[in-house]
Amino acid sequence: MGLLDTPNHSYKDFYDIARFRLAWRINIILTFTLFGATTFYFFNNPITAIQYFSAFIIAIIGVIYLVVTKKYILVSYFMVISSMILVITTMLFTLDVTHLVEPLWLIIIAIFSYFNLGKRTGHVILGIVGIAVSYYLFFNLNDNLSLKRILTFNELIGLIIEFSICFFVVGYFIFNFIETTTNAEKKFREANEALNEQNKMINLQNEEKTVLLQEIHHRVKNNLQVITSLLRLQSADIKSKETKIHFTDAINRVMTMSLIHQKMYESKNLSQLDVSDYFETLIKDLIRSSSVKIPIEISINSHLEKVGSKTIVPLALMIAELVSNSIKHAFDNSGKIVVHLSAEINNVFELTYKDNGIWKEQANNNSFGLQLIETLIEQLEGTKSVQTSENGTEYCISLSNLDV
Predict the structure, then answer these.
(1) How many C-beta atoms lie closer than 10 Å to residue 18's C-beta?
(2) Where are the beta strands (DSSP E) in 251-348?
(3) What are the start-end ranges of the H helices in 70-152?
(4) pTM for the full model?
(5) Are strands 296-302 and 335-343 parallel, antiparallel or unpaired?
(6) Which residues pair with 55 in a beta bridge?
(7) What confidence tens digit (pLDDT) does each residue in 286-307 have?
(8) DSSP H/E element including 60
(9) Helix H or strand E encompassing 353
(10) Considering the domain 294-404 in this protein, what is its CATH number?
């Protein structure tokens, strides 16, 4: 493994990996460059050598800590705070030299803070750097310039080395930013391509499942229609009027479920049905199958556009039983059926069924139809109330288990 190759770590996020890599590489680069600067100044300017040696120690500690703990955030905070203290202290309290490189080092520290520690920490560090540099320019710069000392050859060489290190680090930051951005764009494109492929596969699977479900609904509808036809053929041989009525009721119940599968087959959304359209078709089919000669007006009003497939069956059977009762017992010369479904507070749904007929005979509470209605209401976790007057019969049913 090369020196610039990062040690093994457990980071999975792309940006965490990039920040860990930057912390590692910048510490390795600074370890070697600062050691070289320390060696050069050791023979020319011992005070500056001590400053660079301190920075070299900071870089060494960062390398060791990354190898041992793999925690780049703590290392980054240590590097930023310790190096900022070192540079600001040097700039403000070493008064016999003109500090040309220190502001550049402070800018480098701020850039590193933004990349590795985030925008908020970067703002704080940049604010501190701005205050420190402003203080130096306002209070110390004139005193440094008043020295008017000609730099020696070795001092010029040292200054070139310092600027070269700073420019190299800035260049590496720019390179790292470009590399990270390029890799991020590449990862983003790859993720998009993979997501598009997954979406295509999911859409294809959904289309296949939709076709399959439609075919199932179509076949179930056909089978139920066959059962309906068989029941009608069988009822033709029945002499008992009461038995014939029971057969008709059974046919209507099978037809109700058959219509559900037909609407599912025709619908684009197989999980939900259009309530108003379904109830209107259902009631018309019930009236037609009952061979009623009188005109019956239908009014459907639903505040719910769709009802889920789990509850449409009990709801439809309930409506079918109520309509069948109205047709058999309530109407004489004409009739009107009103169905209203609305959403109330706390996910309680109100189903109102009303006819305008006067019942010709009292309903038998023990009849299968009324028992079925009670069972269906319990299944949908509901309650009902019935009001009968000269204007007709009205069922108010509160339901709390509708799949909408």
Answers:
(1) 21
(2) 272-274, 296-302, 306-308, 335-343
(3) 72-93, 102-117, 119-135, 141-145
(4) 0.54
(5) parallel
(6) none
(7) 787 776 778 888 888 887 777 7
(8) helix 46-69
(9) strand 349-355
(10) 3.30.565.10
